[in-house]
Amino acid sequence: SRETLFFPPDTDASSLGDEGLRKRILKGSNIVLSSKYVGGEGVEVVNAEFVKSSVRTEDCPSDGLPEFALVGRSNVGKSSLLNSIVRRKRLALTSKKPGKTQCINHFLINGSWYLVDLPGYGYASAPKELKTDWNRFTKDYFLNRSTLVSVFHLIDASIPAKMIDLEYARWLGQNQIPTTLVFTKCDKRKKKKSGGKRAEENVEDFQRLMIGDVFHTPPPWIMTSSVTNVGREEILLHMSQLRNYWLKH
Description:
Elements: H1 18-24, E1 48-54, E2 67-72, H2 78-86, E3 104-109, E4 113-117, H3 128-144, E5 148-156, H4 163-174, E6 179-184, H5 199-210, E7 221-223, H6 232-248
Parallel strand pairs: 2-4, 2-5, 5-6, 6-7
Antiparallel strand pairs: 1-3, 3-4
Keywords: Cell cycle, Cell division, GTP-binding, Magnesium, Metal-binding, Nucleotide-binding, Septation
Cofactor: Mg(2+)
Protein name: EngB-type G domain-containing protein
């Protein structure tokens, strides 16, 4: 229904019939494309390069370029998704051992905007004091980074919703941080006989559990797979319209 869709700012859907609206919804998402802001530079990734790592918000790049931050549990597949988006196998290093990202890592895309890889939360095998520090500077970055366009909060769709992810999503909502839910590992199928659910079912369950005091309707969301590259084009289109709106305003 229209109530569950995400309409970018300044998007007038009242003139669109149901068929016209369906054609504008990104596949595997609830995001409507805006004819006013989608497109332009950045829909395709031509160049991607690592710029710097920071442990304080004030040490991040000061060039004023728009940026999108990736955050999620330590084993959700952040680095794999980042590599998928830029079509580079090792721009962001992946590891079988969760928790390798320990800083705010800026990657410059097409010389005009950033993807930012943040430390994961949850299961990283690091001292408690270090994990507390990661949590502190990550949330400080969310609250005080003026060039942050949106947080892309990664959720593992191959497993049932976890309370730690729901609590993190609620914290972002309570602090009015612009957020897109990115459901990862949507290529994985758990067998019904073992009690697992399809990725689509886990996505629906997560959204249902989110709705409450903070969220009255679901935020924008996209289903992805770093293995099959499902959702890659949709993420870039969504980023382009958010970025173009941000640059204009």
